[in-house]
Amino acid sequence: MLHRSWFPDRLVGDRVILKRHVSANLAAFMRWYADPEVSRLTRYQDGPMARPEIERFFQARVLGSDSLAMAIHERATDRLLGTCAFSQLDGENGSALFHITIGEKDVWGKGFGTEATRLMVEHAFERLRLHRIGLSVFAFNERAIRSYRHAGFVIEGHAREAIRRDDRWWDEVEMSILDSDWRAQLAAAADASAASAASVAAPRGSADRASGAASGETTNAGGTLTDPATGRPADAPSIGRSR
Ligand SMILES: CC(C)(COP(=O)(O)OP(=O)(O)OC[C@H]1O[C@@H](n2cnc3c(N)ncnc32)[C@H](O)[C@@H]1OP(=O)(O)O)[C@@H](O)C(=O)NCCC(=O)NCCS
Questions:
Q1: Cβ atoms of 170 and 140 closer than 8 Å
Q2: In this structure, which residue's CA is closest to atom 17 in ligand 1?
Q3: Same domain assignment for residues 164 and 111
């Protein structure tokens, strides 16, 4: 199991901030997991969790030491929106399972879940040095599947007709992201940014180029500004990096 020192105090994005859970968050869990719509999307069992079950889940899986659970807050207001976690952290095989619930339904579909997922994925690959993150999602949960795809997860299989909901059978969709997928995303984003910098830099006049040279920046044949120390584009992005 991963050591607790790998547990971040916070992960900061543009619109969300992930923080360690505190005991007072139990009240929000009681509300979220008692909601039939949330439970439909997150539970194998039909119907919401009973209060004692929510409390046990919160103590063991949220505050407990065998998963890495973070509270999702809106950065601008500090409002608690939901929770996300890695469970089954396996240091030997470099793998974990990812889970997320935005419990506040009024903010579904506004991008918070995707950003929280990206922050967790970045932490897993950049800090924990994991190799693979897996998850499973019910096939009818199209919003979640779309969000996971945006964060770089790919569908790797289906557990056929694994869940009974709304009087019919549904597949469970297995998704994963590997560290190589993550690095390929970063490289693609850096390439896209370099290409857009090139298209902006190209029309510049000679005065701009002179001032760039004076500040130590150089331009390559395509007109891209490059950092003389690294040869990389001067404004290569730190896509998805937490601050
Ligand atoms: C799944 C979840 C984490 C996604 O987070 P989110 O902040 O709502 O999602 P995002 O806005 O980041 O992304 C959702 C995407 O699906 C789209 N979407 C929104 N509602 C949708 C719907 N009903 N059907 C299909 N797509 C939908 C959004 O437009 C967005 O795609 P786009 O960026 O291409 O426009 C969140 O909705 C949630 O926690 N839901 C309840 C619990 C749950 O389902 N957990 C996952 C269990 S596996």
A1: yes
A2: 143
A3: yes
